[in-house]
Structure formats: C-alpha cells, structure tokens
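Predicting holo structure, zinc ion bound.
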Amino acid sequence: MHFLKCNNCGHLNEVKGEYLVFCQKCNKKLENNYSDWKTRNPDKSIEEYKRLVCITEDEIRKEVGNS
Ligand SMILES: [Zn+2]
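Done. Tokens:
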C-alpha cells in the first residue's frame, strides 16, 4: 500500500488509484497529487509516482519507530 501525506492535517491518504486529489480527512487539495504530478511528469507512470512521491507502510513504521 502507498500513502500520500496531507500537508494540512497530516492524514495519510491511501493511494488506490489516479484520482486521489483531496485529503479524505480535511478535504484540502493534496500537494503532489497524481494529476498535478502527471502534468509535470507526462512521461512517467503511476507506478513511478507511487515509488517517488508516496510513502509506504514500511516507511511509516520506520517513522513511528524513530519518534
Ligand atoms: Zn488533510
């Protein structure tokens, strides 16, 4: 699973597809949402987006473990 963190409220939104644009918790527009990112990176796929921009469960676990 991949997540996109909301810069407004810190909620981790699960990235299930290409259409995650608004935070599921506070409804603010997410920075680095896929459609904006795709505009800047038209040659890249959603898999690359997930790898480069989103955070994974493992990374979240690490973050929690370190704090
Ligand atoms: Zn939010």
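Residues 2-65 form one domain.
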